[in-house]
Amino acid sequence: MDDLLTLVSFGPEGWGDDIASGVGVTVSLALATLPLGLVLGFFIALAKQSTEPSMRLAANIYTTIFRGLPELLTLFLVYYGAQIGIQQFVRLFDPQASVEINSFVAGMVALGVVFSSFASEVFLSAFRAIPHGQYEGGYAMGLSRWHTMRLVILPQLIRIALPGLSNLWLILLKDTALVSVIGLSDIIRQSGIAARVTKEAFLFFGIACLLYLALAMLSSLAFTAIERWTGKEAEAR
Fold this sequence. Notes:
By secondary structure, the protein is mostly helical. It contains nine helices and no strands.
């Protein structure tokens, strides 16, 4: 028992520091990906209900591709494919140039486009749940399309979309485990290294399970608080 406690302790003899740094990487990656995915998803949802057929077609192709591809394959396409493409382009100007994409950035972009493709469907459903009279009421008050969207539609949109977005956040949090395959030192990678070195796979992967569950529980509590706050704001209006 003492040996196990030593293995998970913080300091030179334990792996607590390494696993804690992995938690930091996992949370940082998820938090960095979230705004990217939300912004992309919002604009894709707008494009899907655009009156311009080409915009609707482009948005539908985008979501079909990134909802259909496995997340791991998307990660490989961004990390390896984009790296090769950029390197070939740069070598047109400098044949000796070498380009390497940062693992964190590659993970953020890959998970961001996947998240945005699913978030766009959540936003699109929320848009359709808002009566058209809300838009007409904003215009009747003299508000521009931008101000109607910002002051009238967005508060309702966020409240309606929040349950779906909270589920997507939990999926995103779990999908961050995929970045371990491209060398990013997240929870899974650090736990795997510790398991191989110490031969205590059950211990360290069990800790990884508990950490992901703890992050999911904290996220659920946070989203529950946000939903209550948005509900109170709606009642106040």
